[in-house]
Amino acid sequence: MTSTDQERWARVKERLRAEVGEDIYSSWFARMELEGIEEDTVKLSVPTRFLKSWIQSHYAEKVLACWQAEQPSILRIELTVRSAVIRTLPPKSKPAETASELAGNRTQTVRDYKSSGEPRSMLAPVSAVHEALGGSPLDPRLCFETFVVGRSNTLAHAAAKQVAQGRRGDAVMFNPLYIHAGVGLGKTHLLQSLAWAGNSSPERKVLYLTAEKFMYGFVAALRTQNAIAFKEALRAIDVLVIDDLQFLQGKSTQAEFCHTLNALIDAGRQVVIAADRPPSDLESLDERVRSRLAGGLVVEMGSLGEELRLEILKYRVAAAKQHHPGFDVPPQVLIFIAKTVTHNGRDLEGALNRLLAHSKLTAQPITLEMAEREVRDLIRPQEPKRVKIEDIQRVVARQYNVSRADLLSSRRTANVVRPRQVAMYLAKTLTLRSLPEIGRRFGGRDHTTVLHAVRKIENLVNTDAALAEEIELLKRQLQE
Ligand code: ADP
Ligand code: MG
Fold it and tell me: What percentage of the chain has pLDDT greater than the value 70?
């Protein structure tokens, strides 16, 4: 980094300060540091994840605009958490070897495939080929025909379709395709649809793996004698699909994932990934892997809107009717479920299954009253969430970059004492637990210690605006 960069950074900070005001500036940006500038990207860091996500969701554009005012060539701001930037060593295995193997020419691959006696997909059913490659099982119900497209998933659907329709040898448009969404919003459905559709062409092999399967099958195979056979199989793959990437764990697994990813992408194969969060939030992943993941097309699927929920329900009822012709759900019941049951696709399925069970067991028609009774516990709760002490400890520890064990320990260093006091204060204000109970849950402390902490923070909150805001945000985070 040059001294001009630092001077520029100083001017950008002044701009920011002028734009947002002293208070906001000192709460959020005072601890932000410049890590470097690479081409069109400015790399900044902050000390906690909380700061990072807050700045990202509230001030990302402002920060970028202030940079651009000083340096118009800047197009991107990359924000990282300082202490969380762990640089892992390059993988021990030889990536070059695998990369070139993977890049091995395709005619060769096809011939190998034939002569090794593997079933050709033209002759074998789609799933048999998929299983022969070691893929996770595919559910025949999860296909494009049953995937309902709405506002929240149009782009993800279009991208998945595009990948599924690609032909061997086509240029890859976006690589990797990375889809993220919360639980039950259709990631697995979309990825499996892609795998089914992609594999229906005799020309192409799509391999669908859960992250777990990747870890325990794939990586295990890479490490054993089977590695050769495994690489053979890998060579035959045109599209590798990995579901639930957030479950990928362990340093060496990640190193192997990283090198598989690089090898496939460099060889022009398509990689498709789903996870419950964006690449930047896969905290345990190596920075280089994250940026590789973010380098393709990243698409988020939002929560299912009411319209989409209703469409999904209609599809589901129609499908159920094929096996249970007497299953009639009046439109107002469907509308009621679409309106009240949470945005999660799994709960919709659960609600319909209950209606189906009820109508089969009692042979009574489905009415609104009955539906209300049957799905009561799936209805989106209106009252605020009950906060647990463990959650408080977890969130506070993360916010201040200490461990939960530190909070419970008897250590008295300043960097642990304050977070511990904040956590006790939150436990007192957000839960119904008594002071002695809170003391017990914080490493067996006396109730007077808890009381002292609560008073201390109460006083500080009145004088320290930044702390007050920080606590407000912690509360909000816990109650969300
Ligand atoms: P995720 O993998 O994101 O947790 P799933 O793909 O398992 O979610 O979806 C949960 C349930 O909701 C499944 O039964 C799925 O078929 C259904 N679902 C979700 N989105 C859609 C959609 N757009 N169209 C049809 N069904 C959907
Ligand atoms: Mg899933």
Answer: 83
